[in-house]
Amino acid sequence: MADISDEIRPSRLRRGWDSDLAWSFRRNPVAMVSTAVVLILMLGALFAPLIAPHDPFNPGSLNLMNGFTPPGTANAFTGEVFLMGTDDQGRDVFSTILYGMRISLFVGFAAVGLALVLGVTLGLLAGYLGGWTETIIMRTADVQLTFPAILVAMLIFGVAKGITPPEYRDQVAIWVLILAIGLSDWVQFARVVRGATLVEKSREYVQAARLIGRSPFSIMLRHILPNVLNPVLVIATISLALAIIAEATLSFLGVGAPPTKPSLGTLIRIGQEFMFSGEWWILLFPAVTLLALALSINLLGDWLRDALNPRLR
């Protein structure tokens, strides 16, 4: 058995390496660079406790004497040197970026996951069942599309925060933020899946599944869903960048992540207060990190969209 598995494993790797998707990836320098940037930033956020020189959110480790230290310059009082400088509270900017990315990425992935599950489920139901189910779902989607997503997210965030007891608001702020962004972003998933389902349900394999007595739930889950995942994957990749930007926007406006758990948006909001007083690094480095993360994910999504489009092969 060991000999057989050893023979099969390289062939599977070879098939993956020679696939159209892998070939397209190797031929696209932008996709490779974007993937490298995304992986570096995500790994930096994941291993922040091991990489960060300081714990910026531990009040016991802060020294106000280190405040406003320029990048790569020894502090006049303590003599400490910080790669990206410090903020007004003496927190190492490099460490705050690593920990801030953890919040931004967590909110982004969780919000996209919520929007994906909700949108795909409603899209499948609307496309397969039709009738009043489709009418209610798609008219709700049309109404939501008339409002900018960020305004919908702010409305949901405000309502959810308003009904939360004041003593628990900071504790649940991240989850409320995920709920707000996720509920504001499900429409595009539902519309794409509904359109693909309308096409797939008229195929011969769906008709055959009906003839042998498959239930509608089984047909949607086992037969239609696998065939509509390609566009969903592309939308999810692009939506991740939009969700991270939405989180940063809400946090920048002061209605997102709490000060006790600042994200990249919160760090940018703090930095802009000192932009005109000469402490440019407090704003610059978090802003550049957010730009690099969102741009790389967007470019990766653009490549994935083209690679999975059979008309462009």
Compile the SSE list and pairings.
Layout: H1 2-17, H2 20-26, H3 29-46, H4 48-51, H5 93-129, H6 131-145, H7 149-162, H8 169-183, H9 187-200, H10 204-211, H11 216-224, H12 229-252, H13 264-272, H14 281-307
Helix pairs in contact: 3-5, 3-14, 5-6, 5-8, 5-9, 5-12, 5-13, 5-14, 7-8, 9-12, 10-11, 12-13, 12-14, 13-14
Describe this protein's structure.
With 313 residues, this protein is mainly α. It has one domain (31-54, 83-312): MetI-like fold. The chain contains 14 helices and no strands. α10 (204-211) runs antiparallel to α11 (216-224). The longest helix is centred in the middle third of the chain and has 37 residues, at 93-129. It is globular, with a radius of gyration of 24 Å.
Comma- or semicolon-separated keywords:
313 residues, mainly alpha, MetI-like fold
Task: Give a summary of the structure in a few sentences.
The protein has one domain: MetI-like (MetI-like fold). 69% of the residues lie in helices and 0% in strands.
Provide the number of structural domains.
1
The overall average pLDDT, rounded, is 88
Task: Please tell me the CATH architecture by its name.
Answer: Orthogonal Bundle
Could you tell me the strand content as a percent range?
Answer: under 5%
- Main sheet properties: none
Give helix and strand order, one letter per element, not per position.
HHHHHHHHHHHHHH
Q: Which percent bin holds the helix content?
A: 55-70%
Main location: membrane
Membrane topology: Multi-pass membrane protein
Pfam families: BPD_transp_1, OppC_N
Keywords: Cell membrane, Membrane, Transmembrane, Transmembrane helix, Transport
